[in-house]
Amino acid sequence: MTPLSDNLEVLLAQLPKVELHLHIEGTLEPELMVEIARRNHIPLQFPTVDALRDAYNFHNLQSFLDIYYEGAQVLRHEQDFYDLTRAYLDRMAAENVRHVEIFFDPQTHTERGVSFETVIKGIHRALSDSQSLYGISSRLILCFLRHLSEADAMRTLEQALPYKQWITAVGLDSSEVGHPPEKFKTVFDRARNEGLLTVAHAGEEGPPEYIWQALDLLHVKRIDHGVRCLEDPALVERLKRERIPLTVCPLSNIKLRVFDEMTQHNLKTLLDKGLCVTVNSDDPAYFGGYLTENYRAVCQALGLNAQQLVQLAKNGFEASFIPQADKQRFYDELDRLLAQSASQAIR
Ligand code: ADE
Ligand code: ZN
User: Fold this and answer.
1) What is the number of other CB atoms lying within 10 angstroms of the CB of residue 10?
2) pLDDT tens, 66-102?
3) Are 302 and 3 spatial neighbours (Cβ–Cβ below 8 Å)?
4) 198 CB-near residues (< 8 Å, 6+ apart)
5) Is 204 a catalytic residue?
6) Are 61 and 256 spatial neighbours (Cβ–Cβ below 8 Å)?
C-alpha cells in the first residue's frame, strides 16, 4: 500500500477527532493483560505477550469474542478498570482525540462475581481524570450482551440505575446473528423511560432487517457498524433522510472478515451516498490499530482526499452526544484545517 502524502499525514495528525465505537475491554493490550493477570494471580491460557498476539487470528465475530471474553477475565478490581481506561485515554490524548463515547460490558464482569460498582467506578474515575488532565470529554454507554437473555439485561439495567448520572446511553453488542434487536425491546423501552439514549450494533454480520429493528423497536440514535445497510436501498434512503449515523470500524471489519481487504471496504460508497459515516476502532488491542490508524488505513486503501477526511471527522462530531451548541467550534476548526491543507497542496 502506498503511504499517504505528507500533506494528508499532517492533516490526519492535526484533525480533532472523536471516537464513538470503542469497547473498553477491547483496549486491553497484551502487556497490560499479562501484568494485571500476574498481580491478580490469574493463570492465562496464552501466558506471554507473544503467545497472546499470535492467538489474535480471527475468522469471524464469534472467534474474536471467545478470546476477548477470556482476556477480560483478568479484570477484578476497581484499579484494573482504572488502569485499562487510563491507558486508552493516554493514547487518545496523543492522537488529538477530543471526545470519546465508550462502551462497557458489565455482564462480562458481574457474571464472574465482580460488582457493577467496581467496574463503573474504575472506568468513571479514569474518564474524569482525562477531562482534567487532557481536556478529553466523554460519555459512557452500557452495552447489554445479546447472547444472554433479556431478563439478564434487565437485571443489569437495574444495577446501573444508581449510577445513572454517569451513563448516557445503553447499547447492544456480542454475537449478532440469531440475537435480533427485537429480543431486547422491553429493556430498551425501560432504559429510555429512565432518560437514557439508545444505540445498537446492527448490520455487522447480521442482515439489514436487524438495522430496521434497531431503528423501529429500539429507537436508536446511532447504528454501530451498519455496513450491511447497502444491501437494502430503502434502508439507505431512511438512514440518509433521518441522518442516522453509522459508527464504522474499518480495521475491525477486516480482522473479522466482514470484508476481505480494505480496498473492498464500503466506507467510501457510504460516504458518497451522503450517509453520516464515522470512523472508529472497536477493539483496537485486538485489531491492530487505534483511531488514527483506522483513518490512515481507509484513506490509503480507498484513496480518500483531504475533503473526505475532514468530512469523516465532522460526521464524528455531528454523531456524538456532545451538546449541539458545542459542536460548532469543532466544525470551524475542521474548516480551517481543510483550507490550510488546500493552500499547502497548491504551494
Ligand atoms: N464486542 C466487542 N466488539 C464487538 C463487535 N465488533 N461486535 C459485537 N460485539 C462486540
Ligand atoms: Zn463493537
Assistant:
1) 16
2) 999 999 999 999 999 999 999 999 999 999 999 999 9
3) no
4) 169, 170, 171, 188, 191, 192, 218, 219, 220, 221
5) yes
6) yes
Is 3.20.20.140 the CATH number for 1-17+245-347? yes
- Asked if 221 and 200 touch (Cβ cutoff 8 Å), the reply is no
Residues bordering ligand 2, an ion, CB closer than 5 Å:
282
- pLDDT (tens digit per residue) in 11-52: 999 999 999 999 999 999 999 999 999 999 999 999 899 999
Cβ(231)–Cβ(271) below 8 Å: no
Contact 153, 184 (CB under 8 A): yes
The alpha carbon of 22 and the centre of ligand 2 are apart by a number of angstroms equal to: 6
Strand-strand pairing, 222-225 and 137-145: unpaired
CA distances, 139 to each of 98, 171, 201, 321 (Å): 12, 13, 17, 8
What's the start-to-end Cα distance of the chain, in Å?
A: 26
Instruction: Report the candidate in 165, 242, 168, 134 with the shortest Cα–Cα distance to residue 20.
Output: 168
**Residue spans per domain, the chain:** 1-17+245-347
Contact assessment for residue 143 and residue 103, using Cβ atoms and an 8 Å cutoff: yes
Instruction: Give the position, in ligand 1's atom list, of the atom nearest the Cα of 256.
Output: 6
The string of DSSP letters for 70-125 reads HHHTT--SHHHHHHHHHHHHHHHHHTTEEEEEEEE-HHHHHTTT--HHHHHHHHHH
Query: Is this prediction's pTM over 0.85?
Result: yes
Measure the CA–CA gap between 103 and 163, rounded to whole angstroms.
15
- Asked if residue 107 has its Cβ within 6 Å of ligand 1, the reply is no
Q: Is the C-beta atom of 179 inside 6 A of ligand 1?
A: no
| Ligand 1 center–CA 78 separation, angstroms | 23
